[in-house]
Fold:
Amino acid sequence: MIDLNLLKALDALLDERNVTRAAQRLSLTQPAVSAMLTRLRESFGDPLFVRTQRGITPTARALELAGPLKQILADVETMLQPPSFDPAVAEMTLTIAATDYALQAVVVPFLSELRRHAPGIRAVVLPVQHERLAGQLQRGDIDLALITPDTTPPDLHARRLFDERYVCVMRDDHPDAAVDALSLDRFCALDHALVSYHGGSLSGVTDEALAKIGRARRVTVSVTGFLVLPEILRSSDLIAVVPRRLALHADGLAIFVPPVEIPGFTKTVAWHERTHHAPGHKWARALLVQTCAC
Structure:
């Protein structure tokens, strides 16, 4: 197995026909290049160069090597270059794990941009399974996970997408939609709908915030996802507290600032080291961040 540096030295000697100039081109000393030439002669079993008054002249064997040598060095250089990525013609599959909220607030606008910039990239969206997430990312079952900092497994790369806050929503022709602001008393008196991710719960972050000030509300409907919630609100006098990004894209709903301070949350994207340097994945993550900033 011949050293790649020896091949680079041979290429320089063939081009320069002078040991001193070849050494300067390689940023080496003349004795170092002379020593490399000795090793090259041993490897190829040929003098390769003979001395003349003006420098060195390649032998017939050296001239035979010149063409293939250029091709080998060019191939190695290409191999060592970072792979290029053109989203307009790229073909790959991106698998995303998302909650019901992230599906609407993040994935839907992201897919729109993805189709516009990279029509050949296919997207597969799966539900988040927190207990399996680390293994799924490691195995390559999932490329991106849309989660929160407190649910991000250790040893993953992660980036903040945005900070979310809660708003109060009701149908836009609700009897209480005409007021400028909803009072705390009225807020607590109205019937509420709630999204319980794991199902069955009639309390959540809003109830915790109310309990801190000695108040409570009446939750009469609990559903497991946000998809059906707008329709429930549009067909009833129920109100709900939901993440702001969901409310902004729901037709027929009036939006109010809740009369109680409710802690928001941060949405992040997480990925494994195996895709950290992949050009296509780096581009997709950048597009995701850019989309969420809009």
The chain has three domains: 4-80, 92-163+266-293, 166-263. Residues 114 and 121 are 7 Å apart (CA to CA). The chain has eleven helices and twelve strands. The mean pLDDT is 93.
